[in-house]
Amino acid sequence: MAPQNAQSATMATMATMATMATMATSAGGGALPSSQSISAEAVSAAQSNALIFSRDGVVDRVTAPEMARGHIPFNSPKNLSKWDSGVRISTIRQEIFDGLAFRTQSKTEMAVFWDRKTNRPLVALTRPCIEEFYHQLPLVHAYSDLRLDRAPEILSQIGEIMSFIGQPLSLHPQRHRRTIEFLFAAVGAVIELQKPMKHVMAVRRPSELSPQVQPMITTPAHSAFPSGHTMEAFAMAEVLWGVVQGGGYDASYHDEMLKHAARVATNRVVAGVHYPLDSLGGAVLGLQLGKWIMVQANGAGSVPGIQFKSPFVCPKDPQQSVEVNGPPVDFSLQELRAALDAPSTSDEAPNYRGYVTPIDKGGKETVTAAEGKGFAGLQWLLGEARKEWSEG
Known about the structure:
Layout: H1 12-15, H2 18-28, H3 45-58, H4 85-99, E1 100-105, E2 110-115, E3 120-126, H5 130-143, H6 147-157, H7 162-165, H8 177-201, H9 206-209, H10 228-244, H11 251-270, H12 276-298, E4 302-304, E5 306-308, H13 321-325, H14 333-341, E6 356-358, E7 366-368, H15 376-387
Parallel strand pairs: 3-5
Antiparallel strand pairs: 1-2, 2-3, 4-7, 5-6
């Protein structure tokens, strides 16, 4: 299913889920999990005429019915099971949007996602200087050598990453319908959240800095930093792991999903539309938002605030970048996980060479959702999704 709105270019990743969603919903007779469900109400003119004649043939006279049925319960998450999948997804996405605030600081070129409930920062990104992106170009050129090998993946991942992230679990469109719907709701929200972040960061694509990059795919018409595909892939890996965790799947499944997310990130650099630094920023955002969504879905837990801020020294003469800063930083899943898994109170904690650090080492800036205080719709859909992975 191609995106219906041409302005929603960053929704391409969600459009890639269409094949799975089509199979999943057609098996149960439901509409596609889209926010636009009006098409499901349409019938042909011939069928509509047939329905008119059918009613006329069986209804003799209209009688007043007995008032035997009351209202459906007001604002109950249990009502979600009655609605079209598109309505469920839109309702749950709104819960996610309502829970976060997006704030910017022009002077420091910083953008922050805040948890509204606790009024504490979840993840902050500071835009690296333009000299660092020039400094990244040798890596972009080096990765281009992999284009022929990675072309099938790169072209497929332009619009579809769910099959890659779900591969370790053999994610199935009929067995795991609610899980796929949960991913639509959660990752769809992440896709929308990345748009304002990209807008404020406004970083030029590699081909705008070097005529020799020559990407192998169409360059997206929005900011390079942070990488949207990377953000979506890591959020999806974190959310999917949150669904199956405790269902008999050990941490090795999480590891494999994160490896696939990292490969998606690298493929975008290979294609020539991103810098490795974009991947690092996108992965930090995706993991943090994925963890936060699962805290809200579980109604318990906490997420330490994380900030991305480059330690790169921006010399007046770009030719001195290597001399001053050494080789450009590449994206490493191992280093990133070490940085994010380190205790926030440790002064010796690894921090991905200074790029990724806790917002407060004293642990004061922790986004917390107490039990029973999460998002009701998100919690309901998570419960339904987990039933698909239960061994009982």
